[in-house]
Amino acid sequence: MARVAAVLFSFVLALIPKGSVANVQPGSPAIKTADIGNGITLHYVEQGKGTPAVFVHGSLSDGGYWADQLEPFSERYRAIAYSRRYDFPNTNPTRAGYSAIVDADDLAGLINTLRLGQVVVIGHSYGALTALFLAHRHPKLVRALVLAEPPAVSLLSDLPGRQHAMGLAMLADIRRRMVLPMRADFHKGDREAGIRAFMAYVFNDPHAWDNMSLAARRETLRDAHEWDVMLTTGTLFPDLRPATVKRITAPVLLMSGRKSYPFLRAIDQELALLLPHNQNVVFAEAGHQMWVQEPDECRRDVEAFLRRNNVP
Predict the structure, then answer these.
(1) How confident is the model over 79-89, as pLDDT tens digits?
(2) How far apart are CA 189 and CA 187, in angstroms?
(3) How far is CA 233 from CA 75, 96, 175, in A?
(4) CA distances from 293 to 2, 10, 240, 296 (A)
(5) To the nearest 10°, the Cα dihedral for 271, 276, 282, 288?
């Protein structure tokens, strides 16, 4: 767990935001900012030339999640990792109505501001959900998608046949054991209790939070502001319907961990049925954090997928 937390929050080691470009260690890519309009500024790093590949991190994380991937991907691509609206080191104004849909529009703003044209989007967890909404709302910006277990939980209500009852039961369980306790705690201003409820659910371990180092817990709390906004004024898991998914025409690589949470595996299976042009890779020894647990294998599979789809 400590290893996961260390990777998740690696911007702590490298980012010192001062103006538009932070001072970093020699050899590290410069930290830049992009004013995407509407008073929103996003911090990002980029490395390499070629087809743009934008990396989107998940919840309780920031752009530093991808620190170990930028250099190897930059050998073929213009690799860009950014922090979503309310994650470190961004200091954007808090606004009601935040969700993955807002993140998708922010990502479109970043792509347009940097004049990237069509991009490959590589998303993990909530970042993968953001990528799905980007492909729906801004399809002309997407050349290919790489999705590592997006929590598109609304699809659980539409599972076919015998799986329908199972999907509804999963939805009810997520709401009862995770969403409602988290919302109550965040409404009370108790971030730590809310994150404790989340950790206990997704790791199936009531002591998951306590087992993290003090430093890891501190950084996790810092990146929890987005949940403050989503759980008190916005939508944690915005609605995504099957008909919407079927209209996504870009090639998609679905990345799944065999040891991941059952509801995420069920969502991936549904996405595989709905997306017109998708391929799937399952990591037998990994869970939801496959990019941490199997980083080289993940990268090789993504590069092979892009070659198969003629992305130079």
Answers:
(1) 999 999 999 99
(2) 5
(3) 41, 5, 17
(4) 13, 16, 29, 9
(5) -40
**Which domains, from first to last, does the chain contain?**
2-308 (3.40.50.1820)
**How many angstroms from the chain centroid is the CA of residue 244?**
20
How is the beta sheet containing 40-47 ordered, strand by strand? 32-37, 40-47, 77-82, 51-56, 119-124, 142-148, 252-257, 278-283
- Cα separations in angstroms, 191 against 102, 125, 196, 223: 22, 20, 8, 10
**How many Cα atoms within 13 Å fall on the side-chain side of residue 88?**
22
pLDDT at 22 over 60: no
C-alpha 176/C-alpha 174 separation (Å) is 6
d(CA 159, CA 135): 22
* Angle at alpha carbon of residue 191, lines to 189 and 197, rounded to 5°: 120
What one-letter code names the amino acid at 153? Answer: V
Please tell me the distance from the alpha carbon of residue 71 to that of residue 299, in angstroms, as a whole number.
Answer: 11
Please state the pTM of the whole predicted model: 0.89
CA distances from 250 to 124, 142, 239 (A): 18, 7, 20
